[in-house]
Amino acid sequence: PAPQRLEDYRPYPFAIKEVRLDVTLDPQASRVRADLDLTRQHDGDLVLDIGKAVTLDRLAVDGSDLDAADWTRKGETLTIHRALPQSFTLSSEVTIDPAANTTCEGLYLSGGIFCTQCEAEGFRHITPYPDRPDVMAPFKVTIHSDLPVLLSNGNPVAQAPGRAEWSDPWPKPPYLFALVAGDLRAISDTFTTMSGREVDLNVWVRPGDEDRAGYAMDSLIRAMRWDERVYGREYDLDVFNIVAVDDFNMGAMENKGLNIFNSKLVLASPETATDGDYERIESVIAHEYFHNWTGNRITCRDWFQLCLKEGLTVFRDQQFTSDMRSAAVKRIDDVVTLRARQFREDQGPLAHPVRPDSYVEINNFYTATVYEKGAEVIGMLKRLVGDEGYAKALDLYFERHDGDAATIEDWLKVFEDATGRDLAQFKRWYTDAGTPIVTMKEDWDAEHGVLTLSFSQQTPSTPGQTDKPPRVIPMAVGLISPNGDEVLPTQMLEIDQAEQSFRFDGLATRPMVSALRDFSAPVVLRRELTDADRAFLFAHDRDPFARWEAGRDLARATLLAMLDGGAPGPEYLAAIGRVLADRDADPAFLALCLRLPSAEELAQARSEAGHTPDPDAIHAVREELASVIARTHQAELDRVLTDTVPAGDYSPDAGQAGLRALRLAALGLVTRIDGGARAQAIYDGATNMTERAGALAALIAAGAGQDAVADFHDRFKDVRLVVDMWFMLQAANARPDRAVPLARELAAHPDFDWKNPNRFRALIGGLSANHAGFHAADGSGYDFLADWLLRVDAVNPQIAARMSGAFETWARYDETRKAHAKAALDRILATPDLSRNLAEMAGRIRG
Ligand code: B3K
Ligand code: ZN
C-alpha cells in the first residue's frame, strides 16, 4: 500500500457535534448503532473508515435509510454519494464478532471480558467513523449486556440491570474511545482535586486478583497529586477507572476516564512481582494518567505528530519517577534504555525522525525514537530555556491549545512566544533522524592558564536522509581540578555549528573535563581518555550521570580491549573494588556501576568502530571479565551479599529495591565462580520475587538451574504473569548454545499459549534478548523467529511486527549470519497474505 504523507494533510470536511453509540454485546454478534451529528465545514465527500470485518446492516441520513446506490465500500473506506444538508445526523448499524477477533484491536474478548483498543486506528473496527485524531466529539454511550460491570468513557449517567449509560462531555478523538464489560471486581478509593472536587477511583480486576491491585491505586493517587503540584493539572471527570486485562498488545492505553491496562502493569504482590515490575507499574500508571492532559485534552492533529503526546508524556513520567525515587538512578536507567533501543534504531534500517514524515502502518511508529528520543528532545528544550521558561511555555501550551488537535509547530511556537527564543534550528531534532556524533578536543595553554574545548558534530546518513545540517546541542560541562575539587560547576554550552570552540581562562592547573553531564543531549560523545582519566572521573565527578558514565566507559573499554586479545587493566579492577567498598553511595547507584555493559551495547560499539561484532566472542569476554572481577574481589562480594538484606517487611520503595539490586549484581558476579551455590541458597531462602527471579536468572546463566526451574514452575503454575516470567527467564539467560534448542522445547510446552501477547513476548522476546543465543551462527535463532512471526502474524499483526525488530541489526554481523538472516527475512517477505504491519517492518529491515 502507498505510504501516508505528512505533507498530504487535509482537514476533515465535517465537524461532529455529538456521537451517540448504542452497543448490544454478544460474543459472536455484537450490534453497534451510531448516530453522528455532522456539520459541514469544508468541501469534500463524506468518507468514513470501516474495518473489513464489520458487517454494515443499515445507513441512514436524518432517519431515512440509504440504499446501496448511495454509498460505496472499498478496502477500509465507506463513501457516501448522496447530497447532504449543511447539518444532519448520520446513523449506522453494524454487526461485529468480538470472539473471532484475535488482533487485540477494536472490540475483543480477553478471558471473558469485553474490552477495546482503538489507538491508533481501531475505532473503525467497531463502527464506521472518520477514524482520525483531529475529529473530536463528545460521546454518549449505552451498553446492553447481562455482564455485571459495564464501563465506558466519561461519567456514569444511569445503571440498571442489563444496561448502562455513560456520557463523556470532553470532545475526544475516536482513538480514546473505550468500552469494557465483564465480571470484574474493583478496589476503590477517592481523590479530592485541588479545587475540591471528589473523584471516585477504581481499579478493576478479575475476581481473586483484588489483593494485587493496591500498588496501582497507590501509584494513581500519587500521580494525580504530582500533576496538580508540578504542572497545575487537575482531573476533569467524576470517576477514573482502570481495568486490567490479560490480553493486551502493549503496556496500557489512556482512554478518556477509562484506562485499559495489560494486567502485567497493574497486578503486583511481593511474592509475584519484582522491584522492577513495581517501578514500571508506578511509571505506566502515571504515564497513562498524565495523558489526560498531554494527549487527551490536547491531542494530535494527525499521527505524524505522535511525539507531541508521547514524547511529552514520557518526559513527564520520567520527572515523576525521578521525584518518587532517585533522580540520578532514574537518569542512568533511562540513558541505558535509550542507547540500547533508540541509538540502535537510529543507527539501523529503521531510523526515522522523532516526527516521521511518512508511514505505511502507523502502529509501526510507536518506537523508541518517538517515545524516548521524543522525551530527550523536550529535556533539551528545558535545558535551553531554563526551568522557568519551561514552566511558562507549558502553561501557555495548556491555555492556548486545550481542546485542540495540535502539531509540533504549535508546540514549538508556545516556547518561542513564552521565552522569545527562536527555535527554527532546534526543530531539526524533530525532522532529522540519526544520532549526532560529537567529538570533543581539549587544548591546554599552560602559560596563560586557558583551556579551549573544541567540538565538532556530524550526523551519519539515515534511510532517505543524507543531508544533516548541524543541530543545537546543549552540552553540560564542568571542570575538576587534579585534587578532585570542582573548579567550574556545570555550565551549559550551546553548540550550534559544525565546529565550535569555548574558552575557559584563569585556571591554575590543567583541569579534567566532565562532559555531557546528566546526559544533556542524546548524542554520542567522542573524546580521548586514558583508563586513568576514566578512573579519575569515576572517582571524583560530582555529576552522578557523568560519574557512572566514566565507570561504564572504563568497563566498555576493558571489554573492547579484551576482544582484541588484551587483559583487564588494573584501573578497572581497582575501580570496582572502590565500588564494592563504598558504604556511602546509594546502593542502587552502586548496582548500576557493577553491571557490565550488555552484549548488545558491545556489539553496537564494535560496529561503530568499524569491526564485525562476534556474538560468541562478546559473550566470552563478558563471562571472562565477570569471573576475573569475582576472583579479584571475592571477599568484598561476599560481604555485599550479606550486608544488603533489607531490614523489615518487603517494600517496593527505592531504598529497599536499591539494596536488592546491589545484592543481585554481586550475585551475578560470584555465580561465575561458585557453580551457583550462593544463587541456589538465595533462591531457596527467597521471601520475594525480586530475589527469587534474580537468583533463578543467575542459576540459569551458570547452567545450574534445572531444579530451580522446575520448582519455580511448580510454585507459580497458576499465576499467569509469573509463568510468563518463567518462560522469559529461561530464554533470556540460557547459555548461547542451549538458547534456541531450549526455546524450541519451551514453544512445545503446554503452557505456551502463543496467542496471548504476554506469553508470546516472554518466550520470543526472551530469546531475542539472549544476544549470542539469538544470533547463533547456524541461523537457527533467525529461523525460529521467522517461523513464529509468520504464525502469529495471521492472528495478531501488531505483535508480529513489533517482535520482528529483533532482526534490526542483522547487517552488522558476518557473512554467514547475514546470509541466514537475509534468507529468513526473504522467507517472511515471500509469504502470501502478510499483514501490512509485518510487511512494512520486514521490508524496511531487509532494505
Ligand atoms: N498510547 C498508547 C499506545 C498505543 C499503541 C498503539 N499501537 C499507550 C501509551 O503510550 O501511553
Ligand atoms: Zn503514552
Give me the secondary-structure topology.
Layout: E1 4-5, E2 14-24, E3 30-40, E4 46-49, E5 55-61, E6 64-65, E7 71-74, E8 77-80, E9 87-96, E10 106-110, E11 113-117, E12 137-144, E13 149-152, E14 155-160, E15 163-172, E16 179-182, E17 185-192, E18 198-205, H1 214-231, E19 239-245, E20 252-253, E21 258-262, H2 275-290, E22 299-300, H3 306-324, H4 327-346, E23 358-359, H5 368-401, E24 405-406, H6 408-419, H7 428-431, E25 437-445, E26 450-458, E27 473-480, E28 486-495, E29 499-504, E30 512-514, E31 524-526, H8 531-540, H9 544-563, H10 570-581, H11 587-594, H12 599-608, H13 615-632, H14 634-643, H15 654-674, H16 677-685, H17 689-701, H18 706-716, H19 720-733, H20 736-747, H21 757-769, H22 771-774, H23 780-793, H24 797-803, H25 815-829, H26 836-846
Parallel strand pairs: 2-12, 18-19, 19-21, 22-24, 25-31
Antiparallel strand pairs: 1-23, 2-3, 3-9, 4-8, 5-6, 5-9, 7-8, 10-11, 12-15, 13-16, 14-15, 17-18, 20-21, 25-26, 26-29, 27-28, 27-30
Helix pairs in contact: 1-2, 2-3, 3-4, 3-5, 4-5, 4-9, 5-6, 8-9, 11-15, 13-15, 14-15, 15-17, 16-17, 17-19, 18-19, 19-20, 19-21, 23-24, 23-25, 24-26, 25-26
Domain Aminopeptidase N-like N-terminal: 49-166
InterPro entries: Aminopeptidase_N-like_N, Aminopeptidase_N-like_N_sf, PepN_Ig-like_sf, Peptidase_M1, Peptidase_M1_dom, Peptidase_M1_pepN, Peptidase_M1_pepN_C, Peptidase_M1_pepN_C_sf
GO molecular function, one term: zinc ion binding
